[in-house]
Amino acid sequence: MIECIMHRIKYCYIYVDLWYKTIGFYQIFSVLQCSLAEVVSSQGSNLSFNRSLQGVLLQEFQALHILIANTQILHSDDQLVWRWDSKGVFSTHSAYNFLTFRGTLITKANMIWKLKVPYKIRIFIWLMSHNRILTKTNLLKKGWHGDSSCVFCGAEKTNDHIFLLCPFAKSIWYWLGDSYNNYTSWHNITDILNFAKQLPKRDRDAFLTIFCALCWSIWKIRNDFIFNNTPLKTMRQTIMIISHLVKFWIGIWKETDKQSAERWLPADWDLIPLQMVALEQMGSATVLGDAGMGLAY
């Protein structure tokens, strides 16, 4: 059904038009020969009915009154407006977007595609922001039968839990706490993206680069611990992994951009030389390995 908004209601007649399923308001209103604009202008909120409204009818009338109160009535011809287009004009493109995305596009996640980080990391973060990575909770939706609790703390294994709410993730955010004064108010990934969107571009890119390194490192460490029987990294090792990923990625940045990125990191983040990072990337999967996206338990 095409959804539209009546912006102008001069000729929208109460006694003719159907407002409640197949019931016309002529069965409710005592005044018939008038437009909705005339009723609102003359009576405002003191509308009279020939019978008492109760239950659902009363609730719908109250909702209608709120809608009318927030609507500017123009004394001109009525106009149909397609609500899924900024200009109010129907097009097959806007209709397709509505049917595909139900009218909602997560534009904040588009910031990820412009970052100077490996392409697979951008894909991973984009999937994460859309809650599409294979967490236990998402596996259950696909028919998997198993325990959905986190192996680290026993809480339900959701997307937000892995990267923000789990004590393992919280301890990392706490390490970054001096730089991220807002981190205690973040309750989900959307909160983080909202915070990033408000930053100036240089700071936003720096913050999101560190965010990518943090989330990717948490994901790999968890998967290595479960699937590869790799000993769980200590907090110092985890922080070192994140720090060196960031340092490796910003190596090609302009000096001013590097300084912006380092401002978002704690003062003691630089723990080993960049040359060591390159060696680890070439010869070891422990720190910067390429294990793919995989699953998360």
- The geometry reads as elongated
Strand order of the largest sheet: 1-4
**Please, what is the average pLDDT?**
74
The number of E-state strands comes to: 4
Decide which structural class fits the backbone: mainly alpha
Secondary-structure element order, N to C: EEEHHEHHHHHHHHHH
From the alpha-carbon coordinates, what is the Rg to the nearest angstrom? 28 Å
Main pleated-sheet profile: 2 strands, antiparallel
User: How helical, in percent, are the residues?
Assistant: 40-55%
Unreliable parts: 1-8, 271-297
Separation, N- and C-terminal Cα atoms = 42 Å
Tell me the number of helical segments per DSSP (H or I, 4 or more residues long): 12
| Binned strand content | under 5%
Protein name: Reverse transcriptase zinc-binding domain-containing protein
Domain Reverse transcriptase zinc-binding: 90-173
Pfam family, one: zf-RVT
InterPro entries: RVT-Znf
Explain briefly what this protein structure is.
The protein has 297 residues and is mainly alpha-helical.
Describe the model.
The chain is mainly alpha-helical. The chain folds into two domains: 4-101, no CATH class; 108-283, no CATH class. The chain has helices at residues 36-43, 55-69, 92-101, 119-129, 136-141, 159-165, 167-175, 189-197, 201-227, 235-249, 255-263, 274-283; strands spanning 4-8, 18-20, 23-24, 79-82. The strands form two sheets. It has a two-stranded antiparallel sheet with strand order 1-4. A hairpin with a 2-residue loop joins β2 (18-20) and β3 (23-24). α4 packs across α9 (201-227), α9 packs across α10 (235-249) and α9 crosses α11 (255-263). This is Reverse transcriptase zinc-binding domain-containing protein.
